[in-house]
Design a protein that fits this description.
Mean pLDDT: 75
Strand order of the largest sheet: 1-2-3-4
Shape: flat
Number of strands: 4
Number of helices: 12
Order of helices and strands: HHHEEEHHHEHHHHHH
Distance between the termini: 118 Å
Strand content: 5-15%
Structural class: alpha+beta
Amino acid sequence: MAYWGYSPYVSVAARRRKAEREVAKRRKAGQVITPVTVEGRTIAKTFWGKAWCENLESYSDYENRLPRGRTYVRNGSVVDLQISSGSILALVSGSELYEVSLTITPLPKTIWKSVCEDCAGAIDSLVELLQGRFSKGTMERLCRQKAGLFPSPGEIRLRCSCPDSAGMCKHIAAVLYGVGARLDHKPELLFVLRGVDQKDLIAQAGRGVPLAAASATSSRVMAQDDLSDIFGLDMAPGDAAIGAGTGTSPASPAKKKARVLAKAASQPEAMSAPKVTKKAAPEKATVKKPVRLPGIVKKAVTPAKKALAKKATVRKAAVKEAPAKKAAKRATVKEAVVKKAANVKAGGAKGSLVPVTPRNKPLR
């Protein structure tokens, strides 16, 4: 029952069931439904989601209505959220299923150009941009009020089908927080919403980087004369093309021969000494070690453990022999009883005297 024009109170469970029925009808009709789900108390966990929520909370125009919106988005009342260029459409579960429509003004080209120029070279890749991995200065530039990526209250037009006459109702506040939760998973939607291309921020990432040296220095190229001196070779005149571009000229055959002879004279032992070949060492006999399975460790047996094991063995044997001993004892007792009965019977037949007891003692 409604009082003073207000709708009657409907529990969260009842609202959820009603919303599920309505959503099922829309899905059956072919509409794509993407609800907002929040795990725990934290609505946004990544840089882009947190930055969106902090931007909303920084404006006093939204201060009064945002707390109710946080409650609604946490309990799953935003059953559908669609973000496109300059537009946000949503379905929020209340006393009924309300339709929320938000229009966002595209980011002015002058502001976007200024953001790209200020962030040039600070963002290396699209992955780093979407994951929010950049310097603090770049973050502050992207989140700057009225000059960054996030919209101000004057750039947002709000509309909700609920009867609340306030400029921002709790359903709209829930949708705005739902956008922050959605940016956790799809941060590229912020650039789509503002009508800009995120690739512009990394277009100048490689500019201003010094190029590597194209050619090696001459100090790392070995001259032809040095080769002939080291290896004692006579380089043919046609091999001079190998050293082209190094600034060296081929030496004359006479000079090469003189250098080779001088080197041989300075190292006569090295030139005349026969080469000594090393004999292969005899193979050592390999002893195979016993293979032990992993996890099996042989434990040492102490005298105390041996005594305990012996006692346990004796105890087990005694337990096994106990039934046989009992059976033999029963047989012995039974045999004695039978013999005694037979003797008593035989004695009575011969007229044996019956023992006198106080009860059968004759009277005098």
